[in-house]
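Hi V.,

Quick status before I head out on leave. The structure for the redesign project is tokenized and pasted below; the design run finished overnight.
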């Protein structure tokens, strides 16, 4: 928590250090025009996005003549944090919902990372080979050219490819499909502090928990032991959607089969996966192999989802065996599971947080209180526990910072059987 050298009256207060519009080399402070700034970061998105709601009574938009080449530079900081801030440059990607009422107008500036615009106009025709994390770092440093650092996990897989005039991000995402150390669920994404090329397995294995968030129903009296605990109060719990058996069966989540066709050797091979058995060998958030998200008795058949991949690596010396059997089925199940149990919570904002962090949630059962129960008896045994933050919606309004956290759960503390 922040050291309270700077005065904080309530959890979620924020210092707006900078809201600048850079037009043709000229910097304009637009804090007096901006009534709301929203910034999104998501582990399933390569780049950060956002928007600003502008209230304009001075015909500012006409004077600056926005044309799509302008940069918006922002910097927000939670009081007490001197270094942990959200600082970012965005391109204005569009203007929407412009309305004029009397002598005043309002509109929304849509924002996207400056790195995204460069990626969208860059095409690469070049050979790359080596460890997946090494190749991604090379592409990132050579073509993305970001002020942010790239955090990578050391991986064990190799790739060899010639980019057919793909964009840098398309190359990186192609490599992410094939990259892993132990588990093939690698993603490339931008957080508010750094870019990341990591597997989900790497993220969930962390022993560090960012914080423990507690949900207090609206009809109860909120009691805080101290001011800092307000930062960990869940103000609102979003709708929870979980368990779609037919969709899981249709997408090969529970069980699946891969058929590989080697053009050079003229061979067919079949590989089957029972994900319940496979998942029991993978470390999860709760560190409980028996706490899987579906029971072992759930009906499943490997032939209900079949996929075909063709190999031709033997035609040329530089081509490598893609080893589809090592990652295709497992990655498909893991990516489906990432969206299987996700929900949102609304909490006070702070600028030291980033997607990819692990938190703990304390969520009570919907039941009446009785005197003969312990605190553990009131907790939901399936919803309470550790979660991975998959996305954050930062909302800055005046001097207030609120966050909508999307959380992912890959295991329960107790077994479903």
């Amino acid at each position: 928590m922040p050291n309270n050298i700077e005065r904080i009256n309530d959890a979620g207060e924020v210092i707006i250090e900078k809201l600048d519009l850079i037009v043709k080399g000229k910097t304009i402070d637009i804090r007096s025009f901006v009534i709301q700034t929203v910034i999104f970061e998501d582990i399933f998105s390569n780049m950060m996005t956002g928007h600003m709601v502008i209230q304009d009574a001075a015909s500012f938009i006409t004077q600056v003549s926005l044309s799509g080449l302008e940069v918006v530079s922002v910097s927000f900081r939670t009081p007490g944090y001197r270094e942990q801030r959200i600082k970012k440059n965005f391109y204005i990607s569009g203007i929407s919902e412009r309305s004029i009422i009397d002598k005043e107008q309002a509109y929304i500036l849509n924002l996207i990372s400056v790195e995204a615009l460069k990626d969208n106009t860059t095409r690469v025709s070049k050979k790359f080979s080596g460890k997946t994390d090494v190749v991604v770092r090379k592409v990132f440093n050579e073509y993305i050219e970001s002020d942010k650092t790239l955090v990578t996990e050391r991986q064990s897989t190799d790739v060899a490819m010639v980019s057919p005039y793909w964009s840098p991000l398309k190359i990186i995402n192609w490599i992410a499909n094939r990259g892993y150390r132990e588990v093939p669920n690698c993603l490339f994404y931008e957080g508010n502090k750094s870019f990341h090329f990591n597997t989900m397995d790497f993220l969930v294995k962390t022993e560090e928990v960012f914080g423990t968030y507690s949900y207090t129903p609206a009809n109860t009296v909120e009691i805080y032991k101290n001011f800092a605990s307000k930062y960990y109060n869940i103000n609102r719990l979003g709708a929870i959607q979980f368990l779609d058996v037919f969709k899981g069966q249709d997408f090969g989540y529970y069980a699946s089969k891969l058929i590989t066709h080697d053009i050079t050797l003229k061979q067919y091979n079949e590989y089957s996966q029972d994900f319940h058995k496979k998942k029991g060998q993978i470390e999860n958030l709760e560190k409980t192999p028996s706490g899987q998200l579906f029971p072992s008795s759930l009906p499943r058949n490997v032939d209900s989802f079949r996929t075909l991949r063709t190999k031709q690596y033997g035609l040329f010396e530089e081509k490598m065996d893609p080893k589809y059997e090592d990652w295709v089925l497992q990655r498909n199940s893991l990516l489906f599971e990432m969206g299987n149990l996700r929900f949102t919570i609304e909490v006070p904002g702070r600028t030291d947080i980033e997607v990819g962090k692990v938190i703990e949630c304390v969520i009570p059962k919907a039941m009446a209180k009785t005197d003969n129960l312990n605190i553990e008896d009131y907790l939901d045994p399936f919803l309470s526990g550790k979660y991975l933050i998959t996305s954050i919606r930062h909302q800055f309004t005046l001097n207030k910072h609120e966050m909508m956290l999307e959380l992912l759960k890959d295991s329960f503390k107790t077994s479903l059987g």
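Above is the designed sequence. The chain has a mean pLDDT of 88.

G. will cover questions while I'm gone.

Best,
W.
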